[in-house]
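Posting here for the record, re: zinc ion.
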Amino acid sequence: MAGITPPTTPAGPVDGIEVVPTGRGAQHKEHRYGSRLPRILWALLSRSWVEMPINAFLIRHRDGLVMFDTGLDPAIKSDPDYIHQAIGQFLVDRIFQFHIGPDDRLGRRLEARGVDPATIRTAVISHLHFDHVGGIVDIPQADLVVSQAEWDQLSRPHPEHEWILREHIELPDARWRPIEFQPLTDPVLAMFDGGFDLFGDGSMILLPTPGHTPGSLSMLVRSEARPPVLLCGDLAYGGEFIRRDKIPGTGDAATLRHSYAQVRALLDRLPDLILVPSHDDDAAAALEAAYAVKRG
Ligand SMILES: [Zn+2]
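Prediction output follows.
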C-alpha cells in the first residue's frame, strides 16, 4: 500500500532553525540562578561554576539565511588584548570560563554544515554583549539588526563596564541597522509594546524583551509545519526560569519581571511555544528535536 508522500517543500517561508554552537563556557551559580548577594561579591568570591553552551542560531528563510546572534570569538582565549580595558581583563576570568578553540568560530561552524558565511543575509543581534557579537567579523556582508535602545548603549559612558566592547562592534565594514519597534496588528502579540516584522510576512518578529540589557530583544519564529519558537538571547538562562518567574543574578530585576510576564502571556496564547535562551542546553535539544536537525 502506498504511503502518504511527505511534502518536499516547506509549508511556509521558514524551512528550518539550527543551533550553531560557538564553544562552551561556565558562569557562576549565582549568575545563572540569582543571589541575594551584591553582584560584585559573588563575582569575586564564588567558587561554583555551571557549564553552559554559547549558541547562535541559523534560520533558513525562503528569502535568505538569517543568524540570530553570532556567538563568541575564539580570540577571547588566544588574544590577551581581546578585551582592551584593564578592569575587563581583571574581571573576565573571574566571571566567565570559556572552552573555545579556532574551530568554534562562526565562519568555520557554518562551513562545517555546508553554509558559505558570505550567504548570510541578515544577523539579528539579541544584545551587544561580546559573546553574541563575536562572529560578525565572519559575515561582513550581512545586515546586523539590533534594537535602537541597545545601540544607544554604545553612546553611554563606559559601555565596556557592561561587557559591551565597542572595539568588536564598531568594525569599519560592519553594516549595523538599528531598528525602532513599531505597533503590531497581530492580536497574538498584543502583550508586547510593539515589534518588528523582519521580512514582512509574519514569520520572524522581533520583540522588545529588555532587562538583561536595556535594549535586549527576542525573535519569534513561526512556520506552519513546526511549533513556534522564541529565541530569547539572555533574557533567561533557561526557559523554566521565565515560567517560574525566577530572575538571574544580573540585569534589571523589575524590567526582567515585566518581560517575563509578557513572555508568559505569549505562552498562554501559544502553548506549544519553545523558549530558547542562548545558554541553555535543554532548550537547544528541544529545538533540535522539534526541527529534526543535527549539530554541525
Ligand atoms: Zn548577555
